[in-house]
Amino acid sequence: MKPVRWILVLIIVAMLILHLAACAPKATPTPVPLPTLVMVMNMDDVVTLDPHHAYETTNLMIHNSTYDTLVEFRADDLTKVAPRLADRWEVSADGLTYTFYLHPGVKFTSGNPVTAEDVRFSWMRLKNIKDNPAFYADIVADVQVVNDTTVKVTLTEPSPAFLAICAAPAMSIVDSKVVKEHGGTDAPDADQTDKAKDWLDQNSAGSGPFILTKWTPKAEIILEANPNYWRGKPKLGKVIIKHVADPTTALQMLQRGDADLLDSLDVDLVEQAKADPNLQVVIGQTLNQNYLAMTSNPELSKPLSDKRVRQAIALSVDYEGLIQALLRGYGSRAPSIIPLGILGVDPAMTQGRDLEKAKALLKEAGYEKGFEVDLSYGSNPVRETIAAKLKSDLAEVGITVNLKPMEQSVYLSEMRAQRLAFCFGGWTPDYLDPTMWTDYFSYHDRGIAKRMWYNNPEAERLAKIIGTEFDLAKREQAIKDLQKVLMDDMPFTMLYQTQQIVVMNKAVKGFAYHPVHFVSFFDLSK
Question: Beta strands of 407-470 (E only): which ranges?
Fold first, then answer.
């Protein structure tokens, strides 16, 4: 064969190869899996993950990421209610009717559309289950479905706090079809007939950026990303929250790379964390209080039912010592149970320690030689230390304190059953309005006031003004007046308002501290 022919053959073969290559199916690139974030924390407070039953702290973070509310407070601006499922809303001139317009096209993780009927079902289920968070819906008189994306809510009375309450995780919107399939109901007898709780403890029925796939009590909670989330795909594929009660162990897990995020670092370990170049430390200013609560029920404690004794106890506590020596300064203190940073709270009103006055009050009440009392609390390393300090402080005025530590879930159950006379506990907000404190520490039939048998008509009158008055100046004055009543009755004394010391791997980005739900996993990347 002549050379020219060989060249022609080679050209034809090459062209055939290129043609076949062009016709061959292209290889699909392998998707890069999204990273997993491991968080460590003490989560022994988790009792349930059904949003209409849960009333603890850890669940606020879980429900913020697995469900949507109509509105929200974003970490970058806690002063303003922002849209979430509701694009906008209208309020009637008398303040009794709110009309919410839902964002169109939103779907639950099941694929079902989010509709006004789901809003109605969710809020009526919360109301009728009548469990701890049901009071959020007390003010809701009626919920009407106008059309699929419009819902009209009628209140029992005008409330300046209602929109803030709508942001509470307990007001989350659940997939009514899925919840009903698993025994849920919004009927008036839901407290007896609803059977969905067990399923919702292990699964979520929301439209949030993550899906609950597993909860092992006192072990771990696992969330999987919702790839079809209506506000965009999460940047994390999975979140694993591990229960770690020991603070040193928790920090060591971060240092080894076994964990990425720790919600609250022990104050004694702050310098160690700051010295690790692979970690970052963020200080969050909370609205959380730790307090002493004293019963007004003489059947539980005759001495504590006398307000002079309660005043004496409040005057016996070395608050500054608690904050400086035990919290290393990572704390502050408000004059009453309402925290600093809330409308009408003046730090100048704060009352400190006065042992001589405390002894005089005890003598006046007939307890010059002191008395004995049990102090109950949910145990953790910080609280054990503080409880020992309280025992020592009160011994200086002759009061013998018997420490009664309990598992947090047991403590909460006993306190809610009104069985405890003297408690050391904590309170974290579920929504950002003064009523988050004034309602639940003032009314005899709800919150901590109910648990400690506190009943004062004047406190309730002022709480009513705070809960219904839209005039900011009048509302502020009522808060100031209520603080004076609470400081005189002294059913509670604020021990300290905490700062939250958060530690995370430097690879974690997008963290913004939130005083209600701590963090939005949707905002995080790694």
Answer: 422-427
Same CATH fold, 286-500 and 36-242+507-523? Answer: no
3-state secondary structure of 393: helix
Contact 143, 118 (CB under 8 A): no
**Is there a contact between 281 and 71 (Cβ–Cβ < 8 Å)?**
no
Strands 261-262 and 36-41: parallel
Q: Are 441 and 492 in contact (CB under 8 A)?
A: yes
Q: Are the beta carbons of 124 and 221 closer than 8 angstroms?
A: no
Residue 145, beta-bridge partner list: 151
- The structure tokens listed for 357 are 């006055």
Bridge pairing between strands 97-102 and 86-91: antiparallel
Question: What is the DSSP-derived secondary structure letter of residue 134?
Answer: G
Beta pairing partners, 222: 214, 240
Over the stretch 459-494, which tens digit does the pLDDT of each residue have?
Answer: 999 999 999 888 889 999 999 999 999 999 999 999
Which residue type occupies 10?
Answer: L
- The CA distance from 506 to 257, in Å, is 11
Q: Are strands 400-406 and 372-378 parallel, antiparallel or unpaired?
A: parallel
Q: Which fold has domain 286-500?
A: Dipeptide-binding Protein; domain 3 (3.10.105)
- Give the position of tokens 């648990």: 451
In terms of DSSP H, where are the helices of 82-212?
A: 116-129, 162-166, 176-181, 190-193, 197-200
Q: Which CATH superfamily does the domain covering 36-242+507-523 fall into?
A: Periplasmic binding protein-like II (3.40.190.10)
Q: What ranges make up the beta strands (E) of 369-431?
A: 372-378, 400-406, 422-427
Residues in the chain: 526
Q: Measure CA 395 to chain center.
A: 35
Collapsed DSSP state (helix, strand, coil) of residue 494 = strand
pLDDT given at position 27: 53
Give Cβ neighbours of residue 307 (< 8 Å, ≥ 6 apart). 488, 489, 490
Is the pTM here over 0.85, yes or no? no
Tokens 């809020």, residue? 123
C-alpha distances (whole Å) from 155 to each of 97, 159, 162 are 6, 8, 9
| Amino acid in position 182 | H
Terminal CA-to-CA distance of the chain, rounded, Å?
A: 65
DSSP 28: P
SS3 290: strand
Tens digits of per-residue pLDDT, 136-146? 999 999 999 99
Domain edges within the chain: 36-242+507-523, 286-500
pLDDT in tens, 109-137: 999 999 999 999 999 999 999 998 998 99
* Separation between Cα atoms, residue 399 and residue 373, nearest integer Å: 8
Residue 412 near residue 47, CB atoms below 8 Å: yes
